[in-house]
Design goal:
The longest helix is centred in the middle third of the chain and has 25 residues. This protein is α+β, with helices and mostly antiparallel strands. It has a single domain, classed as Alpha-Beta Complex (phage-related protein like fold). The protein has a five-stranded mixed sheet with strand order 7-15-12-8-11, with helices on one face. Strands 1-13-14-4 form a four-stranded mixed sheet. The chain has a two-stranded antiparallel sheet with strand order 2-3. The chain has seven helices and 15 strands.
Length: 293
């Protein structure tokens, strides 16, 4: 194959389609558990308003302005990349069969990117908007300590206990959040137990399973702790987690015949690039058990 600018342009267009198709086809859970902020135009976005949202009240006289709590919570975008090199001979001698799967894998990795960084953040358990770790035993509301962290192994009893704990959580102003635990999140090692709790007709010694259908469950391969499990309320516009997207993953090429790398080393470069980050939403909408007891 004679390599020229037109050939390289057509090849780059083909690679972009391969990348985008693989990106769209990658399985992900992030939209189920996070509220997604897209097309962000700034380096940092403040989420101080997470401290509270006003409740509807009868409008008598002037409107009552809701002051934000003195919380400081923001998410700053990060840059991400994954880059490969393609030898000019692979193009010249029409050996693209070994290049296309690499481009497709980059697209697949791009499609899995948000899940990977989100669940890594969840397991790291950094601070959320109130300055406490997302999962903690001492979230302070009005001088009262609330917990969204337990240690019981996943079972019907611990599942029900977690639900009860979440029902008692309130906003920073002390009003009910009307929490409805709807999603159980488990690592692959706990899939069998999740099925027992939420799908089986009977449980234990054959008694009727009262928790069947109480929530959905998902198995997350990115979770590395084999005993920890999470119960989330994902029924509301606000979610337990945030995915903030400045630019979605895209394929960027350096494949001009006049590029130094092509001229000096007969190499073309293709890079997946994105600008985004993740953060914590409302801690009240998420419960974690370490599962160690």
């Amino acid at each position: 194959m004679i390599i020229n600018a037109n050939i390289l342009k057509a090849m780059s267009k083909s690679f972009s389609k391969l990348f985008n198709d693989a990106f769209k086809g990658a399985e992900s859970h992030y939209r189920k558990v996070a509220f997604v902020v897209e097309n962000v135009k700034s380096l940092t976005v403040s989420y101080a308003w997470l401290g509270d949202t006003p409740k509807m009240r009868e409008w008598i006289g002037d409107k009552v302005l809701k002051d934000l709590k003195a919380h400081e919570y923001s998410i700053q975008k990060k840059d991400w990349e994954a880059t490969i090199e393609v030898d000019r001979d692979d193009i010249k001698y029409d050996n693209l069969g070994i290049v296309k799967p690499r481009i497709q894998q980059m697209g697949h990795e791009g499609g899995s990117h948000y899940d990977e960084i989100l669940w890594e953040m969840v397991e790291d358990n950094g601070d959320c908007y109130d300055g406490k770790p997302m999962f903690a035993t001492d979230h302070d509301i009005g001088g009262i300590a609330f917990s969204n962290l337990g240690d019981k192994a996943l079972s019907q009893a611990s599942f029900l206990s977690a639900r009860e704990s979440m029902y008692g959580l309130v906003s920073d102003s002390g009003r009910s959040l009307k929490i409805k635990p709807t999603l159980l999140v488990v690592p692959p090692e706990l899939e069998g137990e999740a099925i027992k709790v939420l799908k089986s007709d009977t449980i234990g010694s054959g008694e009727s399973n009262i928790t069947k259908g109480m929530a959905e469950y998902i198995v997350v391969d990115d979770l590395t702790d084999a005993t920890a499990w999470y119960l989330l309320d994902v029924s509301k516009p606000l979610k337990p987690f945030i995915v903030q997207i400045n630019e979605k993953p895209k394929l960027v090429s350096m494949d001009s015949p006049t590029d130094e790398n092509a001229f000096m080393r007969k190499k073309y470069r293709y890079s997946a690039e994105s600008e985004d980050n993740v953060g914590f939403g409302l801690w009240q909408l998420a419960y974690k058990s370490t599962g160690v007891n």
